[in-house]
Amino acid sequence: MQYSMGIDAGGTYTDSIIIRDSDGKVMDSNKALTTYPDLLAGIKNSIDGLDEKYLKDVKMVSVSTTLATNTILEKNGYPVGLILVGDYEIPENMHVEFHTVIKGGHDHHGAELVSLDMEALEAFVHRVKDKVSAFAVSSYFSIRNPVHELAIKTRIQELTGLPVVCGHELSLDLGAYERGITAYLNAQLIPIANQFIRSIKEEISGRGMNARLLMLKCDGSVVGINEALEKPIESIFSGPAASLVGASYLSGLETCAVIDVGGTSTDVSMLENGLPELCADGAIVGGWQTKVKAIRMETSAMGGDSHIWVRNLKINIGPRRVIPLCVAAVKYPGFLEALRKGRIPGAMHLEENMQPTKFFIKTGVEASGLGKLEKELFDRIEDFPTSLNDIFWETQKTLSPGLLDSLIRKRLIQAIGFTPTDALHVLGEYTAWDKEASKVGAKLLERYTQIDHIKLCKQIKNDVARNMALDLVSFILKDVPSREIEKILLSDRFMQFRMKIPVVLIGGPVVSYIEELKQILDADIIVPEYSKVGNAVGAVMGKGIKRIEILIKSTYSKDRKRLVLLFSPQGRETFGNYPEALEYAEVLGQKLVMEYMTEAGLDKGQVQVEVSRKDISLSEAGTIPVETKLVFVGVGMPKT
Q1: What is the DSSP letter of 18?
Q2: Rg (CA), the chain
Q3: Collapsing DSSP states into helix, strand and coil, what is residue 489?
Q4: Residue limits of the Hydantoinase A/oxoprolinase domain (predicted)?
Q5: DSSP state letters, 273-302
Q6: Per-position DSSP letters for 510-546, written without gaps between them
Q7: Cα–Cα distance between 563 and 560 in angstroms, integer?
Q8: Structure confidence by residue, pLDDT tens digits, 81-123
Q9: Is the pTM of this model over 0.85?
Q10: How far apart are CA 330 and CA 327, in angstroms?
Q11: In angstroms, rounded to a whole number, what is the distance separating the alpha carbons of residues 329 and 81?
Q12: Does a structural domain hold residue 249?
């Protein structure tokens, strides 16, 4: 008997699951807390909770991870030298430390506009080679002719031996600057991806598992490990992609909307006829516009571990994630008593970091480069939860909340606080951790809201459900402002929003929100079995999907001879006539799809390739189009 394993390292939990290959039955699953900054420890803990008897027969392991996303958001990537080739206007907010713009580039037919300035390139490389770990290059219209990018790549490798990422290798979409940013971010991630994948391989082999390793991409497809190492940028937002794939598999639905309630956020997406909708312009991560094909989703910073805090009698949820009180009471023995006996701040002093339920603890990351005030505060925080109010009474100094924010961003400390997860514990609807800690926290907040702690928790639960519904409707009605949708959803005037497709809920205790959602949505709401580990299911059940685009354009040479140009991932080729180019393109597209499937370890016998064709013709041009775009979409399943 053979099995496959899925692992999803999410923002709060790392889930793992084992599925029997013969019939797709879930054999075992486990959840463990995600560990920062080293995700591998959480992955080990998650696998430790699985039945060992299955492990030796696991032949495939597929992983989805927040590693790439978090690295970009936290600005922890390796230093990279960015080279832009052509006539660029650099945005003022680019914030790339090592970059240059040199002469070169091509036109939309792939003809050279300006000769490549190799002297300027070499001067830049010599200046920064000891300060960077890789280079990224994007040339104007390299999607029509990548020769300048390839020449730069060869020369840099001759001079330095460092990795070089080319824009045309990651995207064939228009937008040279965005391709450059995509290559830059990808180059930042390569050393981190290498280390992570090497660690996963060692963990798998150390458990006696002779298994192939795959990674889930942000478009919901799986990728072979070699491509995952070359293009780690494509794993951004793989968590929401995993939830989409997992929801479809667990519910048996090819068309559905999915609400994934995680610890940090709520993500909404949709699957239609087995395929997700992709972002038209590429994913945006950390404020960077990329050319990465990711699923379109609506996301909000409200999840099970969002911080609930009070100010001026108003309840606020998020946007920051904290360790729930109920979890902290289990992780840190003695915390419950500290919560009970903690000094209570005055109502006038309340703000996000000054709450009766807010505590801080060191993460274990070594501190360096701290300012004087940062270091003073950091030294006051122990390996046991400490509140800002306690520090104030000990030092009689008013501390800036910005100092705490800085230490949190640097991953030196973590915050603990009251969350929607705690509210569910108080209501008895989810009791995985310490219910008493949640109850103590709710009663502390009761003093500042003038609302009974049970009613307070019910209100929090309703607010979370309303946010889920708002995200869903905003996703469906993407051209309608969210504030207008919110007015309708929050109205009690006998109205519901009707959904024509089922809504599948994925994530922790999502079953607790069904009744509240049904007050807002008239929909078939489904919580499938194993929904708590739906992302891990998605990681292992992702299909192999490869999209290949080939463009054929008719043009004229300088001596007015008709030419047919073909642009593909292999570069630019010239043909004497249109039928010859079309025939070649049809063969090439199929070939490139199948080569990818083989490299990724997918079953060629189960690959289906669909081809769509779009022609642009002018009436006076007769029957031959002036432009033809062929899109080959191959769909396959991993070998079992």
Answers
A1: E
A2: 27
A3: helix
A4: 179-538
A5: TTEE-B-SS--EETTEE-----B--EEES-
A6: GGGGHHHHHTTEES-EE--TTGGGHHHHHHHHPBEEE
A7: 9
A8: 999 999 877 787 778 889 999 999 998 888 889 999 999 999 9
A9: no
A10: 5
A11: 46
A12: yes
